[in-house]
Amino acid sequence: MPLTKEDALKRVADDSLADYRDRFVMPAGKVYLGGNTLGAPSRAAIARLNAAAEAEWAGNLVSAWNLDDWIGLPRRLGDKIARIVGARDGEVVVADSTSVNLYKLLTSARRMRPDRGVILTDTENFPTDLYIIDEVARLTGCRVERAPAAEMVAAVQRHKDDLAVVLATEVDYVSGTRTDIAAVNAAAHAAGALTLWDLSHSVGVVPVDLAESETDFAVGCTYKYLNGGPGAPAFLYVAQRHQTEATPTLPGWMGHARPFDFAPDYAAADGIVRHTVGTPPILSMSALDGAVDVTLEAGISAIRRKSESLGAFMIECVEQECAPHGISVLTPREASQRGGHVALSHDEGYAVMQALIAQGIVGDFRPPSIMRFGLHPLYVSHEDVWDTVVALRDILETRLYERPEYRARKAVT
């Protein structure tokens, strides 16, 4: 039986997370499928941000560092995120950007394996990760090996005698394909290497168990599925067993054992806070604090169940409605092998996406031909998915994407 809008509405009626949609602020008439690049603002995030600005900053000024415990916010917020990624208290801290955290932990891990000369990464990794890996390799005198994510375990075994660190991304930012963290960790540890995972497209939509999988290090973005806001600070994870040996390679005053002694010589703090550097951005961290509470309340298991359902429904609808029009699905059909977004390819992908955006359906584009649709379970419904696919079909059938205004490239795609 062909899928219909009635099938979408039945799924909406059975949606245990449907009420969360009203927890988010969204422009009227929008279908927002951009949560894999920038999550929507929750009312809790905005309320927490306003409180930090108006009651704490405006009310207490510099005294808020003590009165409102701003100084403890990176650690407290890290402990909240730890509950989402299967870590223990004291293993996660919020600080800096994903890129900076990646650099800090990769250089630290490299220092822990000084006699080994290979950093291994996945060919499809996010460009910033590749840039940082190449620079760390240059600075530390080792070489970089790349392998397809699907062949990572075999690549570990090929380089096992000289492998220092495996740095990989769990959910591919383009196709949405997942890599098995536990399998790669087991292979790397058997070879005597360390692992560092980028969870930017996982955290908040895919269950991650860093402790159970024996992950050594991890970083992640908070403004995608955690809805922390544009440029929200990232997080980093260091397993408890490494926290003494993993010394900071970017020492800063907030990572000092006694920051307010203002000592001229660096002494690393105990535990995870040694990996912080500069003064924490309190306003953006406060917005993230409110946003994370919404994810914790909904529960990552319920979020994942709906994510799997949304992804399966979209793939089926696209194959039913759009396959004759040159659309191909890049994201795996098997739920365990995909993250939270669906990637489609079309020769005119950029123009097609611009035509969708003009109709109030917001996704994004990645070259050369890929349209990405972030299906955030807390504010995207099966009805949204159906309406998106119907609009996509109509754009393709009528060749609306050929209009000149949809072909003009914008600075951000």
Helix content: 25-40%
How many strand elements? 13
N-end to C-end Cα span: 37 Å
Task: Outline the low-pLDDT stretches.
Answer: none
Q: What is the SS-derived class? A: alpha/beta
Major β-sheet annotation: 7 strands, mixed
Radius of gyration, CA atoms, in whole angstroms: 22 Å
Which strands sit side by side, in order, in the main sheet? 2-8-7-6-5-3-4
Overall pLDDT, averaged? 97
**N-to-C order of helices and strands:** HEHHHEHEHEHEHEEEHHEEHEEEHH
Distinct helical segment count = 13
Strand content: 5-15%
Shape type: globular
Oligomeric status: single chain
Descriptive notes:
By secondary structure, the protein is an alpha/beta fold. The chain has 13 helices and 13 strands. The chain has helices spanning 5-13, 43-60, 64-67, 73-85, 98-112, 127-140, 152-158, 181-190, 282-298, 300-321, 349-358, 382-398, 404-407; strands at 31-32, 92-94, 118-122, 143-147, 163-169, 194-198, 217-220, 235-238, 328-329, 341-345, 361-362, 364-366, 370-374. It has a 7-stranded mixed β-sheet with strand order 2-8-7-6-5-3-4, with helices on both faces. Strands 9-10-13-12 form a 4-stranded antiparallel β-sheet. A hairpin with a 3-residue loop joins strand 12 and strand 13 (370-374). Helix 1 (5-13) packs antiparallel against helix 12 (382-398), helix 4 runs parallel beside helix 9 and helix 5 (98-112) packs parallel to helix 6. The longest helix is centred in the last third of the chain and has 22 residues, at 300-321. It is globular, with a radius of gyration of 22 Å. The two termini are 37 Å apart. The model has no long low-confidence stretch (mean pLDDT 97).
